[in-house]
Specification:
heterodimer, A: about 350 residues, alpha/beta, D-Maltodextrin-Binding Protein, domain 2, 13 helices, about 20% strand, elongated, B: about 575 residues, mainly alpha, MetI-like fold, globular
């Protein structure tokens, strides 16, 4: 029985290899790096046969992306698992340990992607629109391919309530935050967003500056940047250093009295799109990543959800805290930032 | 000879359960123990081994005590942390116990008005996600823009009246969070209390208060202690309130210090999380040993006996309206944050009441919260998960509680200990443990809602057990023994006597688990899949995104739905319960 199985596998493998030689990409690795003019056509045909793909993402705007994709490519369904990047990472690593390969495509922040890369869970790829993306937004893999490409960015800066802060007092840089009028009024999110802002302050102003925030009676709120923005909107928090630009733009659209200003360095939370190394639906997976990075996909992120795109300059200095670091190095740094952040909040 | 012996022992003689029944008990015990062990031991083993194995660096995989050392080492301001934790836990447990017990007595034993209102509001409180309630309280009592604080300033000039971001604020919100649980847990023993005992006290010249203090309270002591243990351990372990309300005030407790340390970094620190929960398990074990000592002779405290009686409510006389007023505090403290929520659900963005705000009121948040069909699937999945988890937990824990309280099987305490252990499982670690277990075992639940049901069943065992104890401890075994004497089998006794008598407390446990699992997140977030999305994940998404208006709208509709369901189930349970 075992022999027959082995023989069958060998036969299939030979047939597969023979088919591969005709020039049509067949395996996931071949599809991901294929750049022929018929790429989309091959992917659509194969994707329809596969019927679906499984997408793990920490993106909040996932439903809209999925519905536009499914309308454009009828017959390819997207099954989404949406969780924050830490839960997404735990789930993926646990599945990989048990060799249960379910996921086709990831869209999440760099820390999990770095870890997946280190554990060979990502398939290097290229995509038709790759030329329009700047160097900083691509994670290089061998042979001119990429592990992931940044598909959306959210920028972290200072948000304030316009009813309690007059236009002439608005801080223009980190230094302004230490002015006496903000004593006891400046808030930080205690999540990783807060840590990364501390990292930006360290880089721009040094440790002495960060320690001064403690005497400045800065407040630590253990809620996400989005939730902290709601407290700024309601007036409970006057000014906060860990506010996302896209959240403020959405709130302004509804008429809320809030505004956002960039500081010396603007932390960019970049989300990258990646293909899983063991994707069970290779055609659909590659097709979906192509779509996210296409001008059409990028437009949804920017116009509907006010994310930033790496394709544009917004007139302030972006900073990618994890850029160029190994997982362990970044972990060490973020531990340091977290300790400083907690120290600020302690009375 | 045997007649002689019975005669000498008099009323203290406890008739022996027939030999055949003893055999059945042994089998039942083995079966139950196997089920409980299957649910609890694999995650426990995972947590234990993770706490002892190095998970990073060159020594990864080696045996280590570094996680324990790191916890002890991180407690640099050890005494401040312990002190803060104790004040917070004791304060909230005492507050919840006092409020919940007094209200339960008023609702069950007195003729105070508004008794049913208190029940409805207890259910409402479980339907609202904790995080949503905290937001409600911040909207009400925030020191800068809280609605109550602003209103008081406009009326009296005092500002702020109450600063929520403080230790009293933390205790207030945590105690109010647990008071409804205490209320439901304590209602059962009070309901089935033999009024002849109170009558005896009154006849001997006591007033209502003295009867309550000298008779009712001591009788309810085992139940009160069981509840106290639950609330104390839960507050000691509570994370949401200390993090959301304590940290902005600069107040740290053990959990905020340790949990933040282990969940803060971007790589999960299972090791420290597990070491911490092992330490908590030790603490709970000590508390349980103490509890056994106190309640060891549980027949002393039984309140429902085989003697016939009619329950009668105590007349409070001129105090009646004070009682009614107290009963209204429960709905009031639930409704206050709800009002803040309703207000924010009708607005495009959060703002204090003003003519402009009133001009902007609309139902836009409601239509956008329910705009797509996936929400409907999430609701159906959640209903399925919570109905199954609540039913399975209550059935299993009823048997566990019966075995522990009623039989003489010498190792029955192990069952109790094991079933209580999940109380201190950290949600995220538990999620990973269950995930690992069903990725390895050839049981096809991965990717379905059933993996969530199994995880919930394990996680809420301790609650089911406490609710069952609360009911069972108050029922004298002589009732079961008369049934056995009359030839009733164990099954018949359970079906026709025990379960109907205990139905109110079983139902309270069921509804509690049902409502709390509807919004459980930390375990569910790791275990759900595309086809098995549930509503707690939706609520969390809205919150992370800062869409408070939609979040409020969605939670309000879900709350209304679950409370309606709870009311229907309660009506059903009343129809089938035995009126004693």
């Amino acid at each position: 029985m075992k022999i027959i199985n082995t023989a069958a596998i060998l036969l299939l493998a030979t047939l597969g290899a023979a088919w591969g030689q005709t020039g049509k990409p067949a395996s996931l690795a071949e599809l991901a790096r294929y750049s022929g003019a018929d790429r989309e056509q091959i992917l659509v045909e194969g994707g329809k046969k596969e019927g679906k793909l499984v997408w793990y993402t920490s993106l909040t705007a996932y439903k809209e992306i999925v519905s536009v994709f499914e309308a454009k490519y009828p017959g390819v369904k997207v099954e989404t698992y949406r969780a924050d990047s830490s839960a997404l990472m735990k789930r993926t690593l646990t599945e990989a340990q048990a060799r249960r390969y379910v996921v086709d495509v990831f869209e999440t922040t760099p820390p999990p992607l770095m870890l997946f890369r280190d554990q060979q869970l990502l398939m290097p790829y290229t995509t038709p629109s790759i030329a329009s993306f700047p160097e900083d937004s691509k994670e290089d893999a061998p042979k001119g391919l990429f592990y992931w490409v940044t598909d959306r960015e959210s920028f972290v800066g200072v948000g304030y309530n316009k009813n309690s802060v007059s236009a002439k007092d608005v801080p223009k840089n980190f230094g302004d935050l230490l002015r006496p009028e903000w004593k006891g009024k400046l808030a930080f999110s205690g999540t990783d967003t807060g840590e990364r802002v501390i990292g930006a302050m360290l880089k721009a102003k040094g440790e002495e500056f960060v320690r001064k925030l403690k005497d400045h009676d800065a407040k630590l709120h253990m809620i996400s940047g989005g939730a902290l923005n709601e407290l700024v909107v309601s007036g409970e928090v006057t000014i906060a250093a860990t506010i996302f630009r896209n959240h403020v733009l959405m709130a302004i659209e509804k008429g809320a009295p809030v505004a956002w200003v960039p500081m010396d360095l603007v932390v960019s939370n970049a989300g990258g799109a990646a293909i899983a190394a063991h994707a069970p639906h290779p055609h659909a997976a590659t097709l979906f990543v192509d779509f996210i990075l296409s001008p059409q996909g990028q437009k949804i992120f920017e116009e509907k959800f006010k994310y930033g795109t790496p394709l544009k300059d917004y007139g302030f200095k972006r900073w990618y805290p994890e850029k160029g670091l190994m997982t362990a190095q970044y972990e060490q740094l973020s531990d340091k930032w977290r300790k400083l952040l907690r120290e600020i909040g302690r009375k | 000879m045997s007649r002689n012996r019975t005669a000498t022992l008099g009323i203290r003689a406890l008739p022996r359960w027939p030999e055949a029944a003893k055999d059945i008990n042994t089998w039942l015990f083995l079966l139950t123990a196997a089920t409980v062990f299957y649910l609890v031991v694999p995650p426990l083993f995972f947590i234990f081994s993770t706490s002892l194995i190095s998970d990073r660096g060159p020594d990864a995989g080696a045996l280590t005590f570094e996680h324990y050392l790191s916890i002890i080492g991180s407690l640099s301001q050890f005494w401040t942390l312990i002190w803060n934790s104790l004040i917070f836990s004791l304060g909230s447990a005492a507050g919840a116990l006092l409020l919940g017990t007094v209200l339960a007595w008023l609702a069950e034993r007195s003729d105070a008005p508004f008794r049913s209102v208190a029940y409805v509001s207890a259910f409402i409180s479980f339907g609202i996600p904790g995080i949503v309630k905290v937001i409600g309280w911040i909207l009400l009592l925030g020191p800068k823009a809280g609605l109550v604080n602003v209103a008081v300033r406009d009326l009296t000039g005092i500002f702020p009246l109450f600063n929520l971001f403080s230790m009293p604020g933390m205790i207030l919100v945590e105690a109010l969070l647990w008071a409804p649980v205490v209320f439901l847990l304590m209602a059962a023993p009070f309901r089935s209390l033999d009024p002849s005992l109170e009558d005896a006290a009154m006849v001997s010249g006591s007033n209502s208060w003295q009867a309550f203090r000298r008779v009712t309270l001591p009788l309810a002591l085992p139940s009160i202690l069981a509840v106290l243990i639950l609330t104390f351990v839960r507050s000691l372990e509570a994370f949401e309130i200390p993090a959301l309300i304590g940290l902005p005030a600069g107040i740290e407790v053990l959990t905020t210090k340790i949990y933040l340390q282990m969940t803060g970094g971007f790589l999960p620190r299972y090791g420290e999380a597990s070491a911490y929960s092992i330490l908590l398990m030790g603490l709970v074990a000590v508390v349980l040993v103490f509890y056994y000592k106190v309640t060891g002779k549980s027949y002393k405290f039984t309140t429902v006996t085989g003697k016939g009686y009619r329950p009668r409510r105590i007349e409070l006389g001129s105090w009646r309206w004070l009682g009614g007023f107290l009963l209204l505090t429960l709905p009031l403290v639930q409704i206050l944050p709800l009002v803040a929520l309703i207000w924010s659900s009708l607005l495009p963005y959060l703002q204090p009441p003003s003519p402009e705000a009133f001009a902007q009121l609309s139902f836009a948040n409601y239509s956008s919260a329910f705009r797509d069909m996936s929400i409907v699937w999430a609701i159906l999945n959640s209903l399925m998960v919570s109905l199954s988890a609540a039913t399975a937990t209550v059935l299993l824990t009823f048997v566990v509680a019966w075995l522990v309280v009623r039989t003489n099987i010498s190792s029955r305490w192990v069952l109790d200990q094991v079933a209580t252990v999940p109380l201190v499982f950290p949600g995220l670690v538990m999620g990973v443990a269950v995930l690992k277990m069903y990725l390895t075992l050839p049981i096809p639940v991965y990717g379905t809602i059933w993996i969530i049901v199994l995880a919930f069943l394990a996680r809420y065992l301790p609650y089911g057990v406490r609710f069952s104890y609360a009911g069972l401890l108050s029922i004298h075994r002589e009732i079961e023994e008369s049934s056995a004497t009359c030839g009733g089998s164990w099954g018949q006794t359970a079906r026709k006597i025990l379960i109907p008598l205990m139905l109110p407390s079983l139902f309270a446990g069921w509804i509690y688990i049902f409502l709390i699992t509807i919004r459980e997140l930390s375990v569910a977030l790791l275990l759900y899949s595309s086809g098995s999305q549930i509503i707690s994940v939706t609520i969390w998404e809205l919150w992370e995104n800062g869409r408070v208006g939609e979040l409020a709208a969605f939670s309000l509709v879900i709350t209304a739905g679950t409370v309606l369901l709870a009311a229907i189930f309660q009506r059903l349970s009343q129809q089938h319960s035995l009126q004693v």
